[in-house]
Predict the structure.
Amino acid sequence: MVGVASSNLATPNVNIMSIKYLHILCPPLWEKLPPLGPAYLFSYIKLQKIKVYFYDLNALLHRGAPIEFKKSWTINSLNMREDFFEFFFKNYYEYFEQILNLIEKNNIKVVGFSFFNINKTFCYKTISFIKKFFPDIRVVAGGPEIFSYYVYNLFNYSQIDNFVVGEGEKALLEILQNKGKELTVFESLEEIDFFPTFEEFDLTLYARKKSLPIMLGRGCINKCNFCSERLLTKYYKPKRLDIIAKAIEYYKTRFKVNWLTFYDSMLNANIRIFDDLLDILISNNINWDAQIGIRPDMEEELFLKMKESGCVNLFIGLEAGSDSLLQKMNKNFTTKEAKKFFQMLNKANIHFEVSLIVGYPDETEKEFDETLKFLMDNKDKIPKIAQVSIFRNYPGITARKITPIEENEALKRLDRLVDFLEKNNFNYTRSYINNLV
Ligand code: SF4
């Protein structure tokens, strides 16, 4: 069956498991690498001898999607299209049938979904479809969108039996053992002493070959005012480096992996641990990319070591080029520090991309102009602008009471910024302009 792990790939020497769990990933989500969140869930519950099945409907449907859908796959507007689910349901019904077969054949009683804002409609429609055939099946919903439900109190138990807010491992295990609550909120693991084995995944489905996602630590040390990260994980939680080393060794041996993409919010959150991680990466002769934070306390040697360790690309949340605006955002660095950080990266010959936010609450014309000036002054240092988004206010997430600037004004500034990038020949990613809607 396409997209479903064959049972002989499961962890060897495990007794016949009586509890079975199916996880379904609905489109449209980024599809180039296997999803890391579910991979962690699977490896954790498998330690308790639970049999896991994974059906990546997202990757399967993306493969066969017409170009008009593929072009805007990860842009939220796709979710708004009435015909998105219906198109795939009609043209790829065999995949939906495979899900039913899988449930029936394996007598699966619990099925889980990863909810994102972009795929929630597809999730609901898939759940309705499954419930028509298996009305008693237990449905569990986790993922970033469930955090928004928590903020807005939008839980609707008519189709979903269990909601999980925050990290999912402990909550899912309890649900599978019939000890779960209808709503589990922020039940985190103290220590993450295991790594995802990706045995449930058909890795041929993903565009990036010999490549896997990995994570050094959950959470972030910063508390940027607009970011949900400071609420999702109470403190920065790095994993044990010996576990990371074992994971890399396993991925290289088992899947011939030569490229790792770190999914950390801030890979350099703890500089000592980051430095030790670089030693592990050097000894593994592997390429990697990651998101890191601008911090003034990184020595030049560390940048050179990053290059030596196989760093190929970095994503950096610059967000603004105005000191007063950076302060309003609580970004924890100044423009002078950002400039120095970029110089160090240039010196080490490391490619990087930055993101920007336009129309942050109270952003003045002067601050917006300062951002343009900063970009112009540092054009030779910034290889690429990866993402420009207008600020979105998510009540409960934004740290302080805010007065968002008029949407029209924000859109005008976005246009001005894009014009500015165009006129001045900046390297920027067109498809990631204002895609975070
Ligand atoms: S550094 Fe990045 S991940 Fe951390 S709080 Fe700020 S925006 Fe969020």
